[in-house]
Design brief:
The complex is a heterodimer of chains A (about 625) and B (about 170). In chain A, the strands form 2 sheets. Chain A has a two-stranded antiparallel sheet with strand order 1-2. In chain A, strands 3-4 form a two-stranded antiparallel sheet. With about 625 residues, chain A is mostly helical. In chain A, strand 1 and strand 2 form a beta hairpin. Chain A contains 25 helices and 4 strands. In chain A, helix 10 packs across helix 12. Helix content of chain A is about 65%, strand content about 0%. The termini of chain A are far apart. Chain B has about 170 residues and is an alpha+beta fold. Chain B has one domain: Ubiquitin Conjugating Enzyme (Roll). Chain B is built from 4 helices and 4 strands, in the order αββββααα. In chain B, strands 1-2-3-4 form a 4-stranded antiparallel beta sheet, covered by helices on one side. Chain B is globular, with a radius of gyration of 16 Å. At the A-B interface, helix 6 and helix 12 of A face helix 1 and strand 2 of B.
Chain lengths: ~625, ~170
Amino acid sequence: MRISAGWIFGGSCVATAATVLNAFVVNKQFYPAIVYLSKSNASMAVLYVQGLVLVYLMFQLLKSILFGDLRAAEAEVNRIFVYTLDKCILYFQHLSERTWHAVLETCLAFTVFRDDFSAIFVMQFIGLLFIKCFHWLADDRVDMMERSPVITLRFHLRMMTVLAALGFADSYFVSSAYFTTITRGASAQIVFGFEYAILLALVLHVTIKYLLHMHDLRNTQSWDNKAVYLLYAELFINLIRCLLYGFFAVIMLRVHTFPLFSVRPFYQSVRALHKAFLDVILSRRAINAMNSQFPVVSSDELAAMDATCIICREEMTVEAAPKRLPCSHVFHAHCLRSWFQRQQTCPTCRTDIWQGRNGAAGANAGDAARNADNNAAGAQPAAGLPPFLPFIGHQFGFPQQAMGVQAGGAQAGGQPGPFPHQIFYAPAPANRPEFMNMMPPPPMAMGGPPGMFPMMPPPPIPQVNGTTGNAEPIIPPANPSYNLLTMEELHRLEGNTRDAIIARLQAMDNIMVLLESAQMQMVQLAAVTPLRRNVVVVNTEVSEEEAPATETVPTDEPTQEAEATSSTTPPQPRSIFRDNSFNTPQPSTSSAPPVPSSPSTSPGPSTSSRTPEAEEVRQRRLARLLGENPNQQS
Amino acid sequence: MAGYALKRLMTEYKELTTRPPEGIIAAPIDEDNFFEWECLITGPEETCFANGVFPARITFPQDYPLSPPKMRFTCGIFHPNIYADGRVCISILHAPGDDPTGYELSNERWSPVQSIEKILLSVVSMLAEPNDESPANVSAAKMWREDRAQFEKIADSLVRKTLCLPASEI
């Protein structure tokens, strides 16, 4: 049952006219009539209402000049204002929250300075409300720039005028409040001053937004960083607001009492600051994620699929650098960024992007391991670890990866140095992906170019023999990347449980196998080197012929030594672990792809001292090494 | 360059006008303001809302499509998932994160992949199959469960009202 504005105007004008006429009729002369009017409370009330109505009319006039017709959302503000007037006239009727709080707080503020309460004061208060309304309108109007399809020149003209006028008015009132306070001491002007200072911050914010929007409008391309700038502007303005409120509270505490009326806006601006801060952090995180984690889709891939970004429904081009998520959905980078600020999931399938990434890392590690296996000896299932030793499996993640490494080393012509390293580096299969994130990527192809082969320094075979013979653990060289481990993980690495010790022994066993193979390689090297002097081109046939030859003819000293080593190797660790369930699967040797037909041809002198199984393994490995080296050379 | 949300709304408007889905009409109320849409939904066949044409208003937030729009039926409609004031309570219109009802799966919630068309189709299927597990209008849900005949009678009178037909034929 809101009384319409027209009725209020009409009623007010009639009442004023009646009061004034009455005064003149009663008093007949000008001066007594004025005295009568100012002495009579009823007449003064009517005149105040008339004043309000006039101010409101002026507000409407200014508004229609500066803003034109209001849009639906803005009309809300306008209605709020009408409601405020209603409230002034008709006491608490349909008041909207924003104005209600503004009025309430200002009234509360004035209770502090009740000595200053006067007609001028009320007028100042109403003027403040008007100007606040203009600020809110300007804020809404600038936000509308982003939503409106057409921005006319008139809009810009109005906007600039409004901003300039508001900025000027605010600074004027701030400075006048400041000088009043300086000259006449603290009064309600402090409250006005701070209100206008905060409005000035709002004007600054609106101006920044206006400039950003305008820059965006002038660009034909979409400006991706605008959202980021807007966020930073909001953070900055909220910071200023918080500082202003804090400053105000301190001053009020020193001059009067605690400013109760500013608690709510202070709390609100702190909350807004907090939110802006969180937004900035989330946005930064999203940008980092965008930049570092998700691959850019190439033009070929774009051509192969439906190139519509489903967030903005526009075509993706290569220039926009669309990104692929781990779940293989593709979006614009800026679309994704603004979405990731809210939700860290894929918009299409709602996969958690962090989860997806970890999973992918695990899968990549698995792939890497598989590739290594393929390089070495063919397909080996990635889950080659004993399932009940997931952690130890990682710690001594030897089985398939180490074999892969071995193969890589073999291809490169034998680099015994880094082997122990890589044993501890060997990527765990998919069962410990999160741990994988801390570890450096698995060393894949670690061999140098084949051309380096002859220049390789001879490996220290006697030392290796010694270590193999005593089954001493080889201490891996200190590795800088262990700095990444946390204390807890270091403690776990100590592993003094039964499982850990068994796995450790197993790892030693594996190291031994590696050393053995390296040794064999050196033997081969020694055998091949004279061959290379004579025969430049070594093809696979030659190497197949060679295999038994190097094995059976113990001409070279290293060969003999190697044989001796393998025969003197204490079979103890092997016999313990070869037969139990912790046994290394020996992946690379059991499924070597190009197995030359050598195994049956070489009954070496030391064969009798070995188990037939071990002998066969050795033979195959030898054959494989022989099969690979010439390939590399040719 | 116009705003992000505006471009997307324009694209959707174009799509909806070139390939309108059956039984749904939607367009901005005013071409100056793409953030306020009006739509007409025909009641799904073989339900108590069949043949009715229900007007609704969709209000889009400034950061659409990152945030879901709001939908409100402007005719009085009696349905378990529609509040008495016409607001539609459907999971597709709820942003993930906050769960006002505690019943909704996150994969039914809003995501930028959704569109006006999908929202309206979901609303049509909601009209056909009310979800009385998490009602917005408790009395409607209760009636839907316990007194289906009465519910259908009310729905029928509503359909007649939207079609400007007399209250009852018998």
